[in-house]
Design brief:
289 residues; mainly alpha; 14 helices; 71% helix; 0% strand; globular
Length: 289
């Protein structure tokens, strides 16, 4: 019955079906596939459901289940983390959010049992030559996908950036420059920012900063991390993370010296927002007497 209903929608026999209702039908069929352990079909339906409704924590929860069944552990873990957050923020569904959290823990155990997360090859369907030229070509493709700013293309660009990182971190490619890893984490942070996934932006910026980025990359990371903290309701942290002094020619410096993909206009608006939010937050702080 679900397949028949979806056929009616997909073939336009029934018109003007809201995208969130279309998403619900796909998500329900994904659940039935999971019950039958049809992992590939469940992954396909839940992916379509999430494309139609980017706030659907249930679709991501079901895709996490499917990817767990397909042994795509890193992708499953990321889906479970995001599903838990969406279920709490948009649906106020404590029961399913708790289930997603439990699934995330089970996936983490599975990853740990393999030795380390880096030991598992992420996205094996993405083929990259194990050479520096292969990494360059893969990053070029990831940046092209990123520049479209289409949500599904941004998700795909994240897969390519992640695969590049794994090849470098696992030592699959020799002679990778020391500055490569922080730049790739920065690129992932840029893609996450376009998807407004601020927790992930905060995480990726932190990793990049730990790896000792160049001064140009550090400026960009400071702005991104400030923006993420602002969006996460941490205005004082956002103020502390902003580069000092404010970099007025930030966009020009990036164009000359850094290949992380993000627009110039991010710099100035973020500084203004930080100033406003910091002032408001400071009013609530105890004053010295």
């Amino acid at each position: 019955w679900l397949s028949k209903a979806l056929w009616l929608v997909d073939s336009k026999r029934v018109a003007d079906v809201p995208s969130h209702e279309h998403s619900k039908l796909l998500s329900k069929r994904a659940l039935q596939h999971i019950n039958l352990q049809r992992w590939a079909e469940a992954e396909a339906d839940s992916t379509r459901a999430f494309v139609l409704d980017a706030t659907s924590g249930r679709a991501l929860h079901r895709r996490a289940f499917a990817r767990f069944g397909l042994d795509k552990l890193e992708a499953a873990r990321e889906d479970a983390e995001r599903a838990e957050r969406l279920l709490r923020e948009f649906h106020d569904d404590v029961i399913e959010a708790d289930a997603a959290a439990q699934l995330r823990k089970e996936i983490a155990k599975a990853i740990a049992s393999q030795g380390a997360a880096v030991a598992e090859e992420p996205y094996p369907e993405i083929k990259i030559d194990h050479t520096k030229a292969g990494l360059v070509e893969a990053k070029r493709k990831a940046v092209e996908l990123y520049k479209t700013e289409v949500p599904e293309h941004l998700e795909e660009s994240l897969k390519w950036f992640t695969k590049c990182l794994w090849l470098a971190e696992a030592g699959k490619v020799r002679g990778v420059p020391s500055g490569y890893l922080p730049v790739m984490h920065l690129n992932r942070a840029c893609a996450f920012s376009k998807l407004q996934r601020w927790d992930e932006v905060e995480r990726e910026c932190g990793r990049a900063l730990e790896l000792g980025p160049s001064s140009e990359a550090r400026v960009k990371l400071g702005h991104l991390l400030s923006k993420a903290h602002l969006k996460l309701g941490k205005p004082l942290a956002a103020r502390d993370d902003a580069p000092e002094p404010p970099c007025e020619d930030f966009g020009g410096r990036l164009r000359r010296g850094h290949d992380g993909a993000e627009a110039k206009e991010d710099a100035k608006p973020v500084d203004v927002d930080i100033a406003k939010s910091t002032a408001l937050a400071s009013r609530a702080l105890p004053q010295e007497r």
